[in-house]
Amino acid sequence: MEPGSDDFLPPPECPVFEPSWAEFRDPLGYIAKIRPIAEKSGICKIRPPADWQPPFAVEVDNFRFTPRIQRLNELEAQTRVKLNYLDQIAKFWEIQGSSLKIPNVERRILDLYSLSKIVVEEGGYEAICKDRRWARVAQRLNYPPGKNIGSLLRSHYERIVYPYEMYQSGANLVCNTRPFDNEEKDKEYKPHSIPLRQSVQPSKFNSYGRRAKRLQPDPEPTEEDIEKNPELKKLQIYGAGPKMMGLGLMAKDKTLRKKDKEGPECPPTVVVKEESGGDMKVEPASPKTYLESKEELSHSPEPCTKMTMRLRRNHSNAQFIESYVCRMCSRGDEDDKLLLCDGCDDNYHIFCLLPPLPEIPKGVWRCPKCVMAECKRPPEAFGFEQATREYTLQSFGEMADTFKADYFNMPVHMVPTELVEKEFWRLVNSIEEDVTVEYGADIHSKEFGSGFPVSDSKRHLTPEEEEYATSGWNLNVMPVLEQSVLCHINADISGMKVPWLYVGMVFSAFCWHIEDHWSYSINYLHWGEPKTWYGVPSLAAEHLEEVMKKLTPELFDSQPDLLHQLVTLMNPNTLMSHGVPVVRTNQCAGEFVITFPRAYHSGFNQGYNFAEAVNFCTADWLPAGRQCIEHYRRLRRYCVFSHEELICKMAACPEKLDLNLAAAVHKEMFIMVQEERRLRKALLEKGITEAEREAFELLPDDERQCIKCKTTCFLSALACYDCPDGLVCLSHINDLCKCSSSRQYLRYRYTLDELPAMLHKLKVRAESFDTWANKVRVALEVEDGRKRSLEELRALESEARERRFPNSELLQRLKNCLSEAEACVSRALGLVSGQEPGPHRVADVQMTLAELRAFLDQMSNLPCAMHQIGDVKGVLEQVEAYQAEAREALASLPSSPGLLQSLLERGRQLGVEVPEAQQLQRQVEQARWLDEVKRTLAPSARRGTLAVMRGLLVAGASVAPSPAVDKARAELQELLTIAERWEEKAHLCLEARQKHPPATLEAIIHEAENIPVHLPNIQALKEALAKARAWIADVDEIQNGDHYPCLDDLEGLVAVGRDLPVGLEELRQLELQVLTAHSWREKASKTFLKKNSCYTLLEVLCPCADAGSDSTKRSRWMEKELGLYKSDTELLGLSAQDLRDPGSVIVAFKEGEQKEKEGILQLRRTNSAKPSPLASSTTASSANSICVCGQVPAGAGALRCDLCQDWFHGRCVSVPRLLNSLRPSPPSSPLLAWWEWDTKFLCPLCMRSRRPRLETILALLVALQRLPVRLPEGEALQCLTERAISWQGRARQALASEDVSALLGRLTELRQRLQAEPRPEEPPTLPSAPASDPLREGGGKDMPKAQGLENGDSVTSPEKVAPGEGSDLELLSSLLPQLTGPVLELPEATRAPLEELMLEGDLLEVTLDENHSIWQLLQAGQPPDLERIRTLLELEKAERHGSRGRGRALERRRRRKVDRGGEGDDPAREELEPKRVRSSGPEAEEAQEEEELEEETGAEGPPQPLPTTGSPSTQENQNGLEPAPGASSGPSAPFSTLTPRLPVPCPQQPPQQQS
Questions:
Q1: Which DSSP string do the residues of 1118-1187 spell out, in sequence order?
Q2: Is 0.90 topped by the overall pTM?
């Protein structure tokens, strides 16, 4: 990379392979297959099949490790050289008491190393100054031209670099009188032993940690800082050379005093203080005694910080003075200018130094010789230091992810790999930024556990784990595979045979290196972010080493085996610019990366990940392994294992070797034996004859290493009896010791006779394949003319398997031949067994005649003898004879079918398809088909279906053609066409919307009878016509009967007639009759039934026969509420057949009336005996009343039914409204006429219907008489009407009697008297209604009825209540004490008949005015029921309170609707509709039902006006004798005010309570 180039250019990608499952099953075989391609790149990537996903087997909780610390800019070689240079120059100035601060030029740090190098390359400082070429220096440092940067660089060079360069060159040492005794210039370099990679520890005293501080400006130190911090005391400028201006120095205000050896003190020194303008001035320093021995200074590992330079003068001892002479001029004159070095005690004149000193320096001063010795001290070996913290996988991952996210300021998974790669190489090349990361590298899997499942006794593996534990791609298995060389090494070599684990974070790196012994390596990334790799092929390995040594010679001078330490990177762009081929790849989780022998590789991690790596060696590695040992010998590097021992161990057991491996070992062994012979011959020539055998494999490696080249000896070594501690390999026999050759002896493992024997065994193993191959070739080619048997060929194949011969082409031919021969034998056995009759016969083994002949030729051409070939020849002869006989039979057609069939049977038994057999088969099929057609079309035969005809036609298309076949097919086709046409006609008749009359269908059926085919649609049409005739007969029968037909019968006939595909005129008449009957029933239902009623119309019209049983009645009512009770006629005891007889219905109705009356009397007696809920002493018991809500009524608010005498909650049922019955004008209805108040209450169990007026029922009966259909409801209605008229007659008769007439007259007088009483000024009347109130306009005879509106408020809508109406209920409550009674005296003889009439009238589901009149008489004859009145008032008050809120909300909604454009709607309708929706009480539902009924029956009477505020909807006569005007003018007269309303809750819901 050129200086200043910041953009990293990624190298090209390495090869990527994706093996199939078949290739993946043989790991080393696949690697050998891709080696020719991948080896050219040095590294490659392998993606396993997608479903190969080994489980992660590391115990995460127990996995703890200590990572290494990596400072990124110390990894790169060129950057490290620059940093080392800066350390040296900083040390140079530090020794002289100054601290180095690197200047900035053009806003970037000045590269002092590059500046020094360029100055040297340009000819040196003097030459550049002479030629004025500093601008060129600036240009080479990539500074922009035209800014006078050259002068600035010269200034910096003179002040910082030039003094250091002078010392380095020794130009200032003219006199060098004594050598450096304590330094050995050519001291032999001792390479570092590396049992573990990257284990070199850095020096404790290195200054790398202070590098970054030199690149940042420090704050100006204060006097106090200088006093407290001894480091700041180094900042004085002393010593030879120019004063360092601009280095950030500040003078001390203290004088350092030091005693010399004899004890005299130094005079006060002068310190230099830097002013703001850059001038220097001298200040006197305060004296201070400071004692420090020189021995401590000379042995201190850190640069001395408190030494002063001493000027030798003013000594009286002449001998002492004479010993001090200048080392440069060898004179002792001018003693006042003679300096004493604090390092070596040599003396120098200040004017003899180069450059000369202008004045006496102060403080510590060392001579040029000491400074140069210190600066040239060799650096410590570079290595990584271990972190002090121990991590778990979780804690390390949290640290790594946090670091990466903070560094890039984005989530870790969003950082692009390209960005990380560029940033990594920028940091590595930077001397300014000091980024430190941690890397958990070389973690022993034996100790911490592998990431792959491992088969051992520690834990039980699942079947899936067991599969991966034995896989060849498991890195614990691959090194010890059968084809691998390392499986022959017994020791578990960590990192080579046993995998190492790597836990990485972003920027953590592995430096350029090749594997130990130049072996292969394989790396698997278990999980995490990618790992970026760079690789160089083996052919360029030496080129890479040369480039790195050329670019950074300083590093290799101190560490020749630097590349073996895995601590040095170099930018791939730099290597590529020097011609080194480099490739790269990103290894993702689940992928393998393989490095090939002597392929340099390096890389870094993109983030937090977990990888595992191991070495392996194959047969092709052996030559590279031998070359590696020679390379190690030249470098004097320790071996991991003995290559000779590995070769000999494999040669000792050749039968266990793979054939290819045996051949490779034989070649290596041959070379090794030749070399051993040469070396031992040289030993003999030297005169060494003593020898003894040594089992080197039993010795530790450090006891059998050559003391010269460090190689591990195995075949032989030279030792000395007098020097037992060392030995040498035979390549260094002259380097053992100085002892006589007679004292030296050979230690050997094998004799020279044993080695050739081992070599011969290897040769036999390697050449055994050739011997076997010759035998196979002779057998397959039948070279000797003798075919081998199958057993012989199988023996050759078994030999290849047992001796593990490679899968060669010859072996594959042998296997193919065996497979083909065995297939022929099996096929021949099947062919022969197919001709044998019986259970052992193999069926469906069919072979054509041509195939049989080819099969026989195939058996004859195989290179093996098979006795089954004779059987196959016999089969062929039989087939040929059969073929001749078949040809003869076909030539004499027409032959008898029996003969043809027998020939066919014989042909099938042959097991071979003969062409003539197919012709025979076609002739037999033709005869069978013609026979089938003849039988089908015969007149006497059973008619065939269309499917049979079509099947015959299809089969005829496949038989052999002939004139008879063609004629038969034509007849079949014609018949099929005719039949399909008539079927289509019949289908249209059956499916058409317009149905045809019976006559048309009968004609179609008659014509189709002549077709001799079974036609399904014609048959269906025939059946439909028969059903239609039967239906017409049923209609005639039912229409001509004695009575009108029942509705059920007509509905059944209509349903049947509609389903028939025949046009029936009678059906229209029946449908009209049924529709009319349904219309009448619906009208009657709306008249009687309440909305959502749980009763049917027939149940309401019939008397309640079981009224006497309270529990039965109540449970049945609840069942109807829940929709569980469905029977209409169960109460009358009638069956469906009985309903068809009018007499049965009438008799049952009469019986039901009597049962109902008896039952209600019994029920009244039972309920009267129950305790009153209003009594304070009421307790719960089985005899208590039960309300419709299922609870026991208790306390205020309970009401008793006037009919059944049972108790109910007032809020659960519909109750009468007092306010509605007290709305007349003041002169017509005095308030104190309490017997006229509407207080009558009937419970929902007693009042089951709307109870229409008799006039409405009569209108329904008139419509019923016009119906030609009988309905059970119509007959029940007739019975009910007769019962009502009968009761009305009896009631009128009772009311017209003398006694009762007199009582009625008294009531009239009493009312008139109450009206005539004078009124107080403020009469206690209800608030007046508006002027439009019809009660004010009408006569006083009219009394409002209790027929309510939708919300159950009867007269007044809640939202229309007048402002003064809120006190009407309180007014009524205040009148209660004034009510007195009874007002009439009813004798028992009069009361009993009236009460009986009242009971029967209440049982009627009809509203009659006489009922109300009788009730008023009975009320007047007894005291007023104040408790009931109070209860009704309280209930009405509570209801009005809840209604006001709903009314106000309703009014707001109405106004919003008008504002939105609804002005055209009917306001009254707007008021009524929301009330229907919002009402929750039963009264609202009943009111809505009554309104609907009025709409339905409105055609039969005058229409009723919509109610307004304060206006009752209906009126009724007060005395009950004559109806009010308009009240009885039509059948639509409304209900009586005394009729209580029945709550009708929704099905499956309890009645809602009003609050």
A1: HHHHTT----SSTTTT--TTGGG-HHHHHHHHHHHHHHHHHHHHHHHHHHHTSPPTTSTT----TTS---
A2: no
